[in-house]
Amino acid sequence: MPTPAPRLRADVSGLPRYVPGRAAPSDLVDKLSSNENPYPPLPSVLAAMREELGRVNRYPDPASSELVTDLSAALAVPPEHLVPGTGSLGVTKDLLRAAAGEGDEVMFAWRSFEAYPKLIWATGATPVPIPLRDERHDLRAMADAVTDRTRLIFVCNPNNPTGTAVHRTELEHFLDRVPGHVLVVLDEAYREFVDDTDVPDGIACYRDRPNVAVLRTFSKAYGLARLRVGYAVAHPPVAAALRACAVPFGVNGLAQAAARACLNAEPELLERVQTLMSERAKVTRALRDAGWNVPDSQANFVWLRTGPHTAAFADACEAAGVMVRPFGDEGTRITIGTPEENDRLLKTAGDWRP
Ligand code: PMP
Questions:
Q1: Most Cβ neighbours (<10 Å): which of 40, 75, 150, 351?
Q2: Backbone angle region of 124, left / alpha / beta, with phi > 0 → left and psi within -120 to 50 → alpha
Q3: Strands 301-304, 183-187: pairing kind
Q4: Distance 344 CA to ligand 1 centre (A)
Q5: Ligand 1 atom with minimal separation from the 35 CA
Q6: Which residue from 137, 159, 217 has its CB within 8 A of the most atoms of ligand 1, so it is best to mutate?
Q7: pLDDT tens digits for range 7-60
């Protein structure tokens, strides 16, 4: 007799899958495909983690209290507005679960962070993608598309994968138009790489807007991608709902200790960010000189409009030992790596012709 399969939610088998950047086939390949920080942890961060290693038989602090205290001081926000989670992705999932369910709509720009549609579907809500205009969020179209079923809107600033950023005035107009019962989530995973002073700091925007929440992460500028720690900044009702939806003990002790050590070593880490930003300027300039049309990026990656040649371009890069991230027949995202890695990329991309 055949064994009956467990009954699962009927819509789950059709959920879109997250397509991660492929693993590098060897250490000889430059992995410029996952927006990672190319620099390893600082000695002080490793020391903090080493100290935690001997305690892994114990559960971590479920509230990440010390990390919350440190973040509260660093960002000048009340501790009850801070909710750490398992990467900003973990917090995103909890935000969606707290705000939206079957019959509700969740809006985002497209193309944007690939995880949004998948996580939205998993809550049972309906994803509402609004096309980018010239590779930038079309905030006017997004405000026009709000319905009485809209529960949450993502604004990915700067946007992954195009690197483009929304400016202060347009964001403020948009926030003025969105009804106060709709939660607007400013996903600022790449905030530390912003050098355009017209790009607003989400933490300044959220303060007098109870329907705005901000997502930040230790994965990018702070280089802790593998540890999975990020956080939301939100007003108390949203923060409390997030805590209610979170998996208890989600943020592990190593991650809490390393994140605190990173905050302690901020000047050193931000120096590395500065290097990556200068490299971003170098890569952008060189690609433009080679004839590519590269949008201004405010993140740790650049976007190339490779169109129908996207797969061929990615193959050519990989053959030259550089992994980039192709997106269908739209374009290619290239993470800024070390100066040597970027030089190897430029050699291939500069010479490449379809
Ligand atoms: N938001 C955006 C826009 C991202 O690009 C990423 C990482 N690719 C994340 C969130 C997730 O980051 P984390 O590692 O903190 O989950």
A1: 150
A2: left
A3: unpaired
A4: 26
A5: 8
A6: 217
A7: 888 777 777 777 766 677 777 688 999 999 999 999 999 999 999 999 999 999
Dihedrals phi, psi of 330, to nearest 5 degrees: -100, -60
Q: How far is CA 27 from CA 24, 226, 276, 286, in A?
A: 7, 17, 21, 26
DSSP character for 227?
G
Cα–Cα dist 76/79, whole Å: 9
Q: Which residues form ligand 1's pocket by a CB distance below 6 Å?
A: 35, 87-89, 113, 156, 160, 187, 189, 217, 219, 225, 230
CA angle 179, 181, 186 (to 5 degrees): 80
Q: Where are the alpha helices (DSSP H) in 213-294?
A: 236-245, 253-264, 266-289
How far away, in angstroms, is 88 Cα from ligand 1 center?
Answer: 6
- Whether 175 and 212 have beta carbons less than 8 Å apart is answered as yes
Chain segment 120-155, per-residue pLDDT in tens: 999 999 999 999 999 999 999 999 999 999 999 999
Give the angle 316-320-323 at the CA atoms, nearest 5°.
75
Mutate to test the pocket of ligand 1, among 19, 31, 88, 301 (most ligand atoms within 8 A of CB): 88
Nearest to 301 by CA among 343, 347, 333, 269: 333
Residues 6+ apart with CB under 8 A from 286: 346, 350
Cis peptide before 158, with omega less than 30 degrees from 0? yes
Query: Per the structure block, which two tokens stand in for 231?
Result: 């956080």
> Which of 18, 19, 113, 301 has the most ligand 1 atoms within 8 A of CB, as the residue to mutate?
113
pLDDT at 28: 67
Residue 186 pLDDT > 70: yes
Q: Which of 259, 262, 257, 263 is nearest to 54 (CA)?
A: 257
